Structures are given as structure tokens and as C-alpha cells.
Automatic annotation (TrEMBL), chain A:
Belongs to the amino acid-polyamine-organocation (APC) superfamily. Spore germination protein (SGP) (TC 2.A.3.9) family. The keyword ATP-binding does not apply. This is Spore germination protein. PANTHER family: SPORE GERMINATION PROTEIN A2 (PTHR34975:SF2). One of its GO terms (biological process) is spore germination. Pfam families: Spore_permease. Signal peptide: none annotated. The chain crosses the membrane at residues 12-32, 44-63, 93-117, 123-141, 148-169, 189-209, 221-241, 273-295, 307-325, 337-356. InterPro entries: Spore_GerAB (IPR004761). It is a multi-pass membrane protein. It comes from the Bacteria. The keyword Membrane applies. It comes from Mesobacillus selenatarsenatis (strain DSM 18680 / JCM 14380 / FERM P-15431 / SF-1).
From TrEMBL, chain B:
It is a lipid-anchor. Residues 197-352 form the Spore germination GerAC-like C-terminal domain. This is Spore germination protein. Keywords: Germination, Lipoprotein, Membrane, Palmitate, Signal.
Length: 365, 355
């Protein structure tokens, strides 16, 4: 059990919905359609749905873990593995959050470079963006939550713009349903990792939620909404592109904006991508906040110093990824690590917590 | 502390926003139309059309042409001739000369596909004779590119031209079991451009052309909802029918060999009639005649497609969507033996304001 967080620093349970959604929706959604259609073809939307449903089990586990140890990931690791080993394992999560923030930031800058301004400097853009993120994290968890809330609500209108693609929808593309093997469906669901990860964050901020157990239903609802958004978007994409055409589209979501026509704007992508800044912002903020929190809890490093340290590492590392191939590799690895953390480590931790609890109860008796 | 860091962010934002290359609308040449033609020695001539905004509010046109061995070199050549950088962001129309279209236009469409600044609503069209001659004329008073794109647009929305644009062309090109098609433009008079038919493609190569009087039936088969107008002979009289709303439904009636029924439902009204009076009996007769005409023309057209091995309607894709584990390799032969029945149901709802 860790020291309780004072109430003035805590947030209401329902805000978990926004925190989870804003962390999940980031850069994966810009181009996941091609990656999942590689295996399951145009049946892949079923994989999206199935993968989304499986997340609810993990969410349930996370709340069980945090409820048992009454604390965050650092507390859980210490509870199960003891303080020293626990802290070492927790440090892995700093690395995970760091690579997550890095992948999000670099991929988004790549999008800007490809779609809007080819000359924009990766370094300067990252600097400004990270300065803003650090500034937000300095405001504390409540500020980060506020940003998460606004960055879901404000850009939510973007969903409507995909309606323009419906005019060109060829629903026959989706037929016949279930024309792929189970293995292909599974691979396709696995390839959703990068797009879905982010739902594990209650592990980091659990003590910061007022009446934390009550927030579980909001976490489930958040994941559910994300799943619906991803599934619907996948279906719209599959009806809009023919299969071989989609296989060539790196950013299918953005490419659908090419068909948007409004009297006041020639190219909607410019508005859309500029708005996407807001969607990216909570990704980076929550990752930096989480990373610095672990640094503080495990190594007693002041959070302000921790944030600046992590942001600096991000800033230096971001310049190393300068080509599409390298950025792709970064994304692949982020997806792999994300999958390992959420679908391998969390179940293990869950079982270990149950065992540890049994053993401790016995000892007490 | 907070205020100070806020100012840092603000200062950085203001100073850094100047770091990106600017494109001021008065200082660039906006490429609105582009065309490609074959010239002798297997060389390609590219034409880029830009609007010129005159002080008296008239919009003029200017074209740059260059000859090169490949489409890649063309851009270089044209840029060298242009005093201001050419930007592609508001491209309206791309024309391909017939010679180029016969050899395949993939090489050219790739550049459009790859360019993030080009929208998916750009119109593609095949130029009868030469793309350059079409682009270098003067039509209407809103500039050539707007004139040409509006010409195509209104014919697609309310007349007999099937809906096509860059997105639909690429969709069909990459869709297995479906082939793309584009409108054909021709300069009939120095100031007039006409749509003279539909170019049917096999992959990215022009295979055959459909004359304008068949376009009405073609559109019934390809578009989800279509509008158009058609002139019909009923006995001695002539009647012009405006198709307000029509739908088609494809049904797979038999396999091995495949048998398909296309059900077309047309709702229309009478625009012109040369006889004296339109009675209910005459309406019945017109409906029947019209149904027969559509059945006959559409069936003949499909037969023709089968002989040429092209599939602009997308029967292959349709059967694929109804079959598990569909094999496109066998489809090539199966398509030749496909039987298509066309069934039309026509209702005339109105006859105008006089009987």
C-alpha cells in the first residue's frame, strides 16, 4: 500500500474515460487499416472488434491488481517482487512510456512533413511540442486530465468528416464475411496493438482517482467507445478503398480527407492534421507524466526534474529517426513492446498479485 | 514560473512559425490543368495550364509545354520555364492523349496518387486527338480548368456521363474484377469542348471507346443512382425521356456457369413528345418500348465487353463478393461464358404540364 494522494490532487472517476480514450487514440489510427488488412483482408474489421473486446479483460485485471495493492504499478511490483526487484521492473515502464511518446511525436512530425510542410525541422518542432507538454505536466495530474478531456472533446467533430467518404462507399467490398482463416484473424488482431495501446494507463494514475474502484466502469466505457470508433472507421475505409488500393495507402485515414470538399477550404487535410496536434498532445503529456511519476516513486527523483529529463531524452532521440524505414521500425517496436506489456506482463502480474495476496494472508494468519 | 514558461512557449511559437517555406498565392503558379500527349520518337509532351488573374477580373489561361522522354523529366522541364514555382494543390483536371492512354497511364497517375497536395476529386479524362489543343484554347469566362471541370461535373450529376474522378479511377484500377473508365473530351470548335464518349480501360490501358448515344445505358449499369435523358422512337413518334432516378440491382441466379440478372428500375418523365396527346395507353406503350430498348442495348453492350475481355460493370467483383475462396485466375475464362440477363422496369411518373 502506498501513501494516499491528497484529495485536492485527485480527479473524478468519470474523467478516466477521457484519459483512456485520449491515450489510445493517437497516431496508430492514421494508418492502421492497411496493416490489419494485410492478413485478414477486408474481414479485418472483425479483428478490430475482437481485439477491442479482449481489452476489457485486461482492464478488469488492471483494476483487480491496483485494487489489491491499493496503489499504482510501482506499488504492485513492490508488493509482488519486493522493493528492489519491483523497482527494476517498474523502470522498464519508464522506457516503455518514453518510446511510446517518442513514436507518437516522431510519427506525427512525419505526417506533417509528408502532408504539409516537407521542410519543417524535426528538432524545432519537437522542442516546441515538448516544451508545451512539460509545461502541462508541471501543472500536475489535474491539468493533464483537463488536457485529455479537451483533446477528446474538441477534435471529436473530425469523426463527422469521414462521412464524406460514405458517398463513395462500395459495401460489396466487405462481402463475403468470414472468408479468412482463424490464424489470419488473430494476426490481424495482433497488428492492432499499436492502435489500441494506451489503455493500460490506470496502472500509473490509479491513486490519483477519487473513489478509484468506481472508475472501472468508465474505463470500460472508454475502451468500448474507442473500439466502436476504430471498427466504424475500418468499415468506412474498407468500403472506400479497393483492397489493392488500400495496400498502398500508408495513411488511409488521412487519404479519406482528400475527397472532402467544402466551399471554404480546398484541402481539408490541412485543417485535419493541424487539429491532430490536439489528439497527440495528451499522448505525450500522459506518457511524460507517467514516466516521471515512476521515477519519483521508485528513485525519489523530483517529478519536475523527471519530466525535464524524459523530455530531453525524447528530444535527443527524435532526431535519430530520419527516414520512413526507421520510423516504421520505431512504430513496430512500440507495438511489440506495447503488446508485451499489456497482453503478457499484465496477466502475469495479475496472477502473481493473486498468489502474493494468498501467501501474505496466510502469513498474517 | 508558469507565466514565464508560457511566454517561452509563445515566443518559440511566434519565431518558429517563420521557419517553414511559405507559398503566397500571388507568388506561385497554380497548376489547374495538366495534359500528356505522345509526339514522334516515343517522346511525351506535357502541358501545364495555369490561370492568369487579370486586373479587370477576367481569368486568362496560360500553358507551358515541354517534351521529354518520361513523365519524371517533364516536371523538371516545365519548372525551368516557369518564372514562379508551380504548385499542384488545386489541380482540377488531368487529360491523357489517346496515344498515351493506349500505352497505359499508370506512369502518370502514380504521380497524382503520390502527391499529398492533390485532392481525390480531380477529374481524369482522355483527350480525343490531343490534350494540348484542348488545354490551350479559351472556353467560358472562368478559366479553362474551371470550365472543363464544370462541364464534366454537370454532365455526371444530371446527364448521361457516369461518375468518374481520380478516386474512382484508382478504385477501379486496383479492384480485382473491375476495370476503369473515363470520359473522352474533344475540341469540336475553337471555343467548344464536347464529351464524345467513354473510354474503356483494361487495367491502365485504353481498350475501346463507347459512343455518346450508348452512354445512357452504360450509366444505368455502372452508377448506383443515375440520372440522364434519352430519345426514343415509338412507332412514328419520337419521345424524349428524362430519367429522374434509377437504380440497378445485380443478382446471381446460377453458378457453373455463372448466370447473372441485372434488374434496372427507372423512374422518368416525358420531356418532349412529337405526337398530339399523351394518353395512358401511350404511356404504357412508351414504357414498354423503353424497357425493351434498355434490355436490348444493355445486353448488347455487356456481350461486347465480354468479347473484349473488359469488365467496367464489375461482374467479377460482384461474383467474388458472393463466393468464398473466389479464384480470379479462373475468372478470365469464366467471364467469357457468363450469361447476363437484363430486366428493366420503367415507370413514367409525369408527362409535364400539358397532356
Amino acid at each position: 500500500m502506498q501513501q494516499p494522494v491528497p484529495e485536492r490532487l485527485q480527479v473524478s472517476p468519470f474523467l478516466v474515460l477521457y484519459l483512456i480514450m485520449s491515450m489510445q487514440i493517437g497516431i496508430g489510427v492514421l494508418g492502421y487499416q492497411r496493416i490489419i488488412a494485410k492478413d485478414a483482408g477486408y474481414d479485418a474489421w472483425i479483428s478490430v472488434l475482437a481485439a477491442g473486446l479482449s481489452i476489457h479483460i485486461i482492464i478488469w485485471m488492471i483494476y483487480k491488481i491496483c485494487g489489491t495493492v491499493e496503489g499504482d504499478i510501482v506499488a504492485a511490483n513492490a508488493y509482488v517482487f519486493g522493493k528492489k526487484i519491483g523497482n527494476v521492473i517498474s523502470s522498464v515502464f519508464i522506457f516503455y512510456l518514453l518510446i511510446f511518446a517518442l513514436a507518437v511525436l516522431r510519427t506525427f512530425i512525419e505526417v506533417i512533413q509528408v502532408w504539409m510542410f516537407p521542410e519543417i525541422s524535426t528538432f524545432w518542432y519537437s522542442l516546441v511540442f515538448l516544451l508545451l507538454s512539460v509545461y502541462i505536466v508541471f501543472g500536475g495530474f489535474r491539468t493533464v486530465t483537463g488536457i485529455a478531456f479537451f483533446c477528446i472533446v474538441l477534435p471529436s467533430y473530425l469523426l463527422l468528416t469521414f462521412g464524406f467518404a460514405l458517398k463513395y462507399a462500395e459495401y460489396r467490398n466487405l462481402l463475403p464475411i468470414f472468408d479468412h482463416s482463424l490464424k489470419e484473424f488473430a494476426t490481424s488482431a495482433y497488428n492492432m496493438s499499436l492502435t489500441y495501446i494506451g489503455f493500460e494507463i490506470p496502472l500509473f494514475f490509479y491513486p490519483f482517482i477519487k473513489d478509484a474502484p468506481k472508475s472501472q466502469k468508465w474505463a470500460h466505457l472508454g475502451v468500448f467507445l474507442t473500439t466502436i470508433i476504430y471498427t466504424v472507421l475500418a468499415i468506412i475505409t474498407f468500403t472506400y478503398f479497393s483492397e489493392a488500393q488500400l495496400a498502398k495507402s500508408i495513411w488511409a485515414t488521412l487519404e479519406m480527407w482528400k475527397i472532402v470538399s467544402m466551399p471554404f477550404v480546398e484541402r481539408f487535410e490541412y485543417i485535419g492534421i493541424a487539429n491532430w496536434n490536439l489528439i497527440i498532445l495528451p499522448n505525450i503529456c500522459i506518457a511524460l507524466w507517467g514516466g516521471s511519476m515512476i521515477l519519483k516513486r521508485a528513485y525519489k527523483l523530483r517529478q519536475k526534474k523527471g519530466v525535464i529529463l524524459l523530455a530531453l531524452i525524447c528530444l535527443v532521440a527524435v532526431s535519430f529517426f530520419d527516414t520512413r524505414a526507421k520510423i516504421n521500425l520505431l512504430n513496430d517496436w512500440t507495438a511489440k513492446i506495447g503488446f508485451a506489456v499489456t497482453y503478457v506482463y499484465i496477466p502475469i502480474l495479475f496472477i502473481a498479485t493473486l498468489i502474493a495476496k494468498k501467501v501474505k494472508n496466510k502469513n498474517e494468519n | 514560473m508558469r507565466i514565464r514558461s508560457f511566454f517561452w512557449v509563445l515566443a518559440a511559437g511566434i519565431t518558429l512559425s517563420g521557419c517553414v517555406e511559405k507559398e503566397i498565392i500571388d507568388d506561385v503558379n497554380i497548376e489547374m490543368g495538366v495534359g500528356y500527349d505522345f509526339v514522334e520518337d516515343d517522346k511525351i509532351e506535357g502541358t501545364v495550364m495555369i490561370p492568369i488573374f487579370n486586373p479587370d477580373k477576367k481569368i486568362g489561361n496560360f500553358t507551358y509545354s515541354a517534351t521529354a522522354a518520361s513523365s519524371r523529366d517533364l516536371i523538371q522541364e516545365v519548372q525551368r520555364k516557369s518564372a514562379q514555382p508551380l504548385v499542384t494543390g488545386s489541380l482540377e483536371i488531368a487529360l491523357f492523349g489517346e496515344g498515351i492512354a493506349k500505352k497505359g497511364i499508370r506512369e502518370f497517375t502514380d504521380a497524382f496518387e503520390r502527391d499529398a497536395s492533390i485532392g481525390a476529386r480531380v477529374y481524369f479524362a482522355v483527350a480525343d486527338e490531343s490534350a494540348k489543343s484542348i488545354l490551350s484554347g479559351t472556353y467560358g469566362n472562368r478559366g479553362n480548368a474551371v470550365h472543363l471541370s464544370q462541364l464534366i461535373k454537370h454532365n455526371m450529376e444530371t446527364r448521361n456521363l457516369p461518375i468518374t474522378n481520380m478516386h474512382l479511377y484508382l478504385f477501379d484500377l486496383y479492384q480485382e474484377g473491375k476495370d476503369p473508365y473515363l470520359p473522352i473530351l474533344k475540341k469540336v470548335e475553337p471555343e467548344i469542348i464536347d464529351i464524345v464518349g467513354i473510354a474503356l480501360f483494361k487495367d491502365d490501358k485504353l481498350k475501346s471507346e463507347l459512343p455518346p448515344d450508348k452512354m445512357f445505358f452504360f450509366k444505368l449499369l455502372t452508377d448506383k443512382f443515375s440520372e440522364g435523358a434519352y430519345k426514343l422512337d415509338v412507332g412514328k413518334e419520337k419521345v424524349v425521356i428524362k430519367d429522374l432516378d434509377s437504380k440497378h440491382k445485380i443478382k446471381l441466379t446460377k453458378r457453373d456457369p455463372y448466370n447473372i440478372t441485372v434488374e434496372i428500375k427507372i423512374k422518368g418523365l416525358i420531356r418532349e413528345y412529337t405526337g398530339h396527346i399523351v394518353t395512358p395507353e401511350i404511356i404504357k406503350k412508351i414504357e414498354k418500348e423503353f424497357e425493351e430498348q434498355v434490355n436490348k442495348e444493355a445486353s448488347a453492350m455487356i456481350k461486347d465487353f465480354q468479347e473484349q475481355g473488359i469488365d467496367p460493370v464489375g461482374f467479377g467483383q460482384f461474383i467474388k463478393s458472393k463466393t468464398r475462396g473466389f479464384d480470379f485466375k479462373r475468372w478470365e475464362d469464366e467471364y467469357k461464358n457468363l450469361t447476363v440477363n437484363v430486366k428493366t422496369d420503367m415507370i413514367i411518373t409525369e408527362v409535364g404540364i400539358v397532356e
